Amino acid sequence: MGILEIKDVNKRFGGLQALGDVNLSVKQNTVHAIIGPNGAGKSTLLNCLVGKLIPDTGSVMFDGQSVLGRTPYQINQMGISRVFQTPEIFGDLSVIENIMIPLFAKRDGAFRLQAISSVDSQTEMRERAEEMLEEVGMQDKRHMHAASMSRGDKRRLEMAMCLIQEPRLLLLDEPTAGMARADTNNTIDLLKEISSTRNITMAIIEHDMHVVFSLAERITVLAQGTPLVEDTPDNIKGHPKVREAYLGETD
Amino acid sequence: MFGLNTKDTRLLLIVALLVVLAPFLLNPFPEGSALAQFNAGYPDLMQRFVIFGVFAIGFNILFGLTGYLSFGHAAFLGAGSYAGVWMLKLLTINVIPAIIISTIVAGMFALLIGFISLRRSGIYFSILTLAFAQMAFALAASVLTPITGGETGLQTSLNDPRILDAASEGGNIPAPSIFGLQMRDSFELSVGEWLFTFNTGYYLSGIIMVLAFYVAIRIFRSPFGLMLKAIKSNQQRMHYTGVNTRPYMLACFVISGMYAGLAGGLMVAMDPLAGAERMQWTASGEVVLMTILGGTGTLIGPVLGAGLIKYFENIFSKINDNLLHQWFAFLPDGMEEFMVTIIHPFIGKGWHLTLGLLFMGVVIFLPGGLVEGGQRIARLFSRKKPSGKDGATTRTEPAE
Questions:
Q1: CA A35, CA A208: separation in Å to the nearest integer?
Q2: What is the least distance, in Å, from the CA of A103 to any CA of chain B?
């Protein structure tokens, strides 16, 4: 049994079968990549996992509990965090505040009214946030306005915001999309370090084969809403079906 | 001090000091001089400064922190006012229960309206709040006449029960008071040409405004305040961070509504009269103007904005052509006529034009409001210091 079990998931938008009988199992503490050409249903699948979309049929179980019918914040509280294609951070706030908000959400749950105590008096929380900043190498940017940072730093910050919640499953939606090569390599290193030092399962949706093959332990290839094959990176590389899906018919 | 950092403590003390010294500060011109027209240190206006200050501080907790623009905040002001007058009629002429009940009633009203309106955000939220407020206004003026006094308004009368008070002697309607001290009681101090008035009602409202300001600072600096700022910044990320934004927004809306109710309660404590027009959309719009003019999201801004608008409303509307003729009497006749004609549309009933121009100027040139203006001036001075090499690198701090 994997930590994430997707069974017979179907999703239809009007006449378009976005997902057809998707079965997928993500094992605990692995890095699992989901690849596929444009329109293969990768993002739809991801949205079904985080509560943004509800599949028409099928089940999605996380650690033995169904995520279907739950809202995004409830699913996050179960231990699933998400990194977006374009980093979603709190642009108006400082870097350290960006880190403290998910920390409060982790400690206090979905809602707790603390209107009188001051944020500054929460020294323990601040220390943990500072540690996290150090871990991702952003300690000297702590008071920076988050929106004014580079794309790479925003990605790093978003990653830190997810990690400080100690999620059991981290979902990454094309984490290196639109990045320069150097930034991409930095992100790969960061992700490698995260997966080796923490008890964390990662599911990555990615276009960039370089990223996929340097990180993933298992790869699922999705085409036209259906998983084509699932295997180790080495086996995927030479798989004829994968070539066909990516490059078209080969006679 | 008071659980605030040094900067906030200083701000609080400055505000407290300004409130205490307002009777002096707002009366800089000697009685009977030509400029006495611009004095604002009389009780009625000073009361309005601090009461609308409370209203705007509360509005800013919602609009400044979360970015949700309520266009129906006057409904809470009105609900608070009606509740206050009823307390003065039924319970006691002492204003304390009236002020407390006003706040609570407005809070309950806000809970209901917020619960429904917060299902939408952006312009739809604004329209929903506006619709509710206009509904409340229309109901108060017509169907609810037994409770609200309809178009004539609700006021205290001789045969009110006032169950906590001893039967009033004499044939006068008792004036609102606090433990025997009447709100309209004033102590006048005459120093040479100057006359300073210290009014009970003003100081009661002033103390309450300082307290309200203090609570607002605490909210701004709390984890709750941080969550609200985060909702304003990126609601989507908030959902994927495990936060249920609805109760946060609702709590904020109710707190903001309670501030409005408190302001309504203070209004009737000063003058025990409540009318439906207090709920009208123009009143809701006014608090929006105050907040934006002063500086949205800043602590002191709304208070400044409220003061400025009330000052304009009272002082500019009082200037008339006769006064202008006096002022420009030193000019040759033709020039005098000309100046009076030019200025005429901006004064008296035309004060809205002046306010409109001022508002446009602020929004276009000082989007951060008066607070930003103050900061720019402060920076101008600090840059002149010889050691000020950090001038170029200072980032615009969020205005406090």
A1: 9
A2: 9
Q: Residue A109: its chain B contacts at CB < 8 A?
A: 242
Residues of A in contact with B222 (CB under 8 A): 114-119
Q: How far apart are CA B170 and CA B25, in angstroms?
A: 39
Range of the domain at B275: 6-279
Contact status, residue B312 vs residue B293, Cβ threshold 8 Å: no
Task: Kindly report the backbone phi and psi dihedral angles of residue A145, in degrees, each rounded to the nearest multiple of 5, phi listed first.
Answer: -70, 120
Inter-chain contacts counted by CB atoms under 8 A, chains A and B = 108
A1-79+167-251 under CATH 3.90.950.10, yes or no:
no
Count CB neighbours of B6 within 10 A: 8
Note whether residue B325 is domain-resident. no
What pLDDT is attached to residue B388? 40
Q: Inter-chain contact A77–B230, Cβ cutoff 8 Å?
A: no
- Shortest distance between the Cα of A95 and any Cα of chain B, in A, equals 12
- Note whether A107 contacts B: Cβ–Cβ < 8 A: no
Contact B218 A115 (CB under 8 A): yes
Domain positions in chain A are: 1-79+167-251, 92-165
Please indicate if any CB of chain B lies within 8 Å of the CB of A93.
Answer: yes
| Residue B301, domain member (yes or no) | no
In a domain, B101, yes or no: yes
Pairwise CB contact (< 8 Å): B244 & A113 = no
* Pairing mode of beta strands A218-223, B177-178: unpaired
> How do A4-13 and A57-62 pair as beta strands?
antiparallel
Q: Would you say A160 and A132 are in contact if contact means Cβ atoms under 8 Å apart? A: yes
What's the gap between Cα A163 and its chain centre?
11
Q: Which CATH number do you get for residue B11?
A: 1.10.3470
The ipTM is 0.92
The nearest CA of chain A is from the CA of B20 a distance in Å of: 26
Q: Alpha-carbon distance B211 to A11, whole Å? A: 55
**Tens digit of pLDDT for each residue in B282-332?**
999 999 999 999 999 999 999 999 999 999 888 888 888 888 888 888 888
The answer to whether residue B289 sits within a structural domain is no
Domain count, chain B: 1
Instruction: With beta carbons under 8 A apart, name residues in chain A contacting B8.
Output: none
User: Tell me: the pLDDT tens digits for B61-91?
Assistant: 999 999 999 999 999 999 999 999 999 999 9
Distance of CA B131 to CAs A230, B72, B116, B146, B283, Å? 56, 8, 12, 23, 14
Residue B246: which pLDDT band, with cuts at 50, 70 and 90? very high
Q: What is the pLDDT of residues A155-164, one digit of tens each?
A: 889 999 999 9
| Contact check, Cβ <8 Å, B241/A71 | no
What's the pLDDT score for residue A236? 86
| Alpha carbon distance B302, B307 (integer Å) | 8
Residue pair A43/A13 in contact (Cβ under 8 Å)? The answer is no
